[in-house]
């Protein structure tokens, strides 16, 4: 026999504490109603974007917390938060996959309903750009305060906390590139090649963004190691 439900005790709108805590009434009212759709696939399109914005909000929050830990030289705590932020990017990259099933003819109907709205206006991605710039500066400052360079870090032990944090930042950067690769692939699959986006940006220019790096020093250090090794200079200081 099912136990009778317990009464809601939290304040706020909604008939249950789940609805009140999760704000499900407000959340589920954020998508267009069927009567407003120009095409039923609008729900898919809106939900993928809206859920991505939520995960990006979480990503930004984690990067801000990582920044504070970096400022306090709490390297391990910063690494954990950057790792979790990277996992959120992996999830939104997976989200993109469902848009492969969006027929180009359906999207052509939806597109005018977007007005001049473009992914370049995504608040989540804008905040991510700011957050990664701040992290890049903070990591450089951390290296300076410890009197080491990125090259010194990579010539050291992979188990060193600073090495691990550097790798977490590189993995995060890779996650951005992987999202962009998937996004470019989906965008061209849905709207084709050689056309303009809603912001009048050539869709193919999205491909150039894939190689853009948010933590360039950490990539340059790898290049320097490879070049040094090709000149016979031993790249590693310690054991692997
Ligand atoms: C049918 C699916 C999609 C298509 C056809 C598409 C198409 C495009 C195009 C053509 C651009 C270039 C700018 C413009 O002129 O509008 C763009 C940029 C962008 N879009 Fe999408 N997009 C899709 C889904 C998404 C989703 C789900 C997101 C998630 C938030 C997103 C986020 C972005 C971002 C952040 C940019 C800026 C470029 C960057 O930083 O890499 N897009 N998109």
Kindly describe this structure.
This protein has helices at 17-22, 24-28, 42-71, 75-96, 104-110, 123-145, 150-155, 161-191, 205-209, 216-230. Helix content is 62%, strand content 0%. The protein has 240 residues and is mainly α. It contains ten helices and no strands. Helix 3 packs antiparallel against helix 4 and helix 4 (75-96) packs parallel to helix 8 (161-191). It has one domain: Up-down Bundle (Methane Monooxygenase Hydroxylase, Chain G, domain 1), CATH 1.20.58. The longest helix has 31 residues, at 161-191. Protoporphyrin IX containing FE (HEM) binds at residues 48-49, 52, 96, 99, 102, 107, 118-120, 122, 125, 180, 183, 186-187, 190-191, 197-201, 203, 206, 209. The site of protoporphyrin IX containing FE has 26 residues, from helix 3, helix 8 and helix 9.
Which tags fit this structure?
mainly alpha, Methane Monooxygenase Hydroxylase, Chain G, domain 1
Describe how the helices and strands are arranged.
Blueprint: H1 17-22, H2 24-28, H3 42-71, H4 75-96, H5 104-110, H6 123-145, H7 150-155, H8 161-191, H9 205-209, H10 216-230
Helix pairs in contact: 3-4, 3-6, 4-8
This protein binds protoporphyrin IX containing FE.
- Which architecture name does CATH use? Up-down Bundle
Main sheet attributes: strand count, strand direction, barrel closure: none
Structural class: mainly alpha
Hetero compounds: protoporphyrin IX containing FE
């Amino acid at each position: 026999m099912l136990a009778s439900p317990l009464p809601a005790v939290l304040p706020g709108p909604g008939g249950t504490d789940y609805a009140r805590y999760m704000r499900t009434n407000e959340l589920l009212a954020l998508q267009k109603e069927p009567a407003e759709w120009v095409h039923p696939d609008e729900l898919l399109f809106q939900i993928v974007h809206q859920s991505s914005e939520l995960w990006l909000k979480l990503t930004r929050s984690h990067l801000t917390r990582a920044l504070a830990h970096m400022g306090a030289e709490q390297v391990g705590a910063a690494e954990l938060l950057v790792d979790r932020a990277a996992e959120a990017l992996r999830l939104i990259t997976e989200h993109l996959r469902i848009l492969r099933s969006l027929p180009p003819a359906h999207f052509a109907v939806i597109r005018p309903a977007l007005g001049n709205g473009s992914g370049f206006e995504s608040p989540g991605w804008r905040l991510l750009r700011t957050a990664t710039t701040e992290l890049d500066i903070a990591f450089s400052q951390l290296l300076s305060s410890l009197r080491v360079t990125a090259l010194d870090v990579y010539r050291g032990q992979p188990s060193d906390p600073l090495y691990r944090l550097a790798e977490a930042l590189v993995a995060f950067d890779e996650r951005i590139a992987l999202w962009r690769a998937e996004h470019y692939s989906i965008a061209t699959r849905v709207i084709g090649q050689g056309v303009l986006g809603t912001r009048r940006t050539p869709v193919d220019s999205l491909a150039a963004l894939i190689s853009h790096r948010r933590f360039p020093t950490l990539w340059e250090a790898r290049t320097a190691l490879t070049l040094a090794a090709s000149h016979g200079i031993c790249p590693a200081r310690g054991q692997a």
